[in-house]
Amino acid sequence: MNQDMQQNASQMPEKEKKRMRQFSYVKIVLLLLFFISAIAFGSIAWFTMNKIGGVGGASVKVGDYPLLLEVHGDQAENKSLFSLVNAALFDPEDAGYQEGEQPDEDLLEFQATPGKNRIIWEKTSRTANDGHHAEGLEPNSCGKLTFWIVAKEAGTFDPEFEFQIDGFHAVTHDEARGNTTVTIVDQLFEINEDLSDHSDVDDSLTASAEAEKIRALEYVRSHILFFRDKDANGYYSGFLGNSRSFRLSDIYPASGGTTFTKGEKKQVTIYWKWANTFEQMIYDASYTEYEPILALASSDDRTALLTYLQPSNSSMFFGLTDAQVTAYLAAVQGNDEDAAEEAIEALSIAYNDADQEIGDMIQYILIEMTNIQ
Length: 373
Known about the structure:
Layout: H1 3-10, H2 14-21, E1 32-33, E2 36-38, E3 42-44, E4 47-48, E5 67-72, H3 79-89, E6 109-111, E7 142-151, E8 155-157, E9 160-177, E10 180-190, H4 207-223, E11 224-230, E12 236-239, E13 245-247, H5 248-251, E14 258-260, E15 265-274, H6 278-282, H7 300-308, H8 322-332, H9 337-361, E16 364-371
Antiparallel strand pairs: 1-4, 2-3, 5-6, 5-7, 7-15, 8-14, 9-10, 9-13, 9-16, 11-12, 11-15
């Protein structure tokens, strides 16, 4: 970003900065579903439900691949939600979940083995070290996704992983529980071109609503960012970009892949961040009032993030044409201070409006990590 523009923003009249920041308060509380899967040899899933004491979880599938996944944590707590997810995501002929292998009964570590089709690991969203934002998935939330790769045999491997985000529409009903009313999930339908086929179950699922939900899904796919590292001050690095992918060698740098001895485990943690405002993505650590997510104004990550913001790589902004977004982003990085100020304001409003669309249109979000090697 242009340094003069940054200095100009820091000198902006306080009422103007306040007017820009107020949009960050129009944020959505979402029920959330995290699901991480590795098709070739395993899958891990985290589940949380905001404000309803929800759960986290994981499942692992293996074949003859020489690596398998391991997850740590408490076992299943919310079978009813799992059954809904299973029905929504998997072929009806696919068998239900099985308990995973627990090599040491004193340790909450679960592995996939050829004798066990999946491992399920579930934990509450508010466990101190589970990496989930306390209020669930919403703008300004962040977390980490941790798993272990275990070698069934010695060798050198470099698996590649890729994230994908899907959304779900929930059919619900309210029930009185004592002095409170709780919302019960009856069915989940994936947000896609077939969503309106379920209008016989929920008459709100018109073709128009389907289109709006698909657009909102593109927004949330863009707004959730993935990184390989996060430092002690909360700044991120190793941006995965619009490919949302990484290799094991990105975590354990080595020429030709990562070498394992038989039975050796390699821990992998990927960090996610949903930026609260557009400003968080463009300012550096010098501008703490914006709570920036990157530390340095000049870095490969900042260059990659500015490229990612382009409409050809992401859908970040509501109500702006691709040409407008491109022009505004150019102004943000340019030398005209007035044009930069106008561009930041327009992009900030459009980013927050996109968050509003996400909250209005999507009840559950699924984050899938696939082994694509």
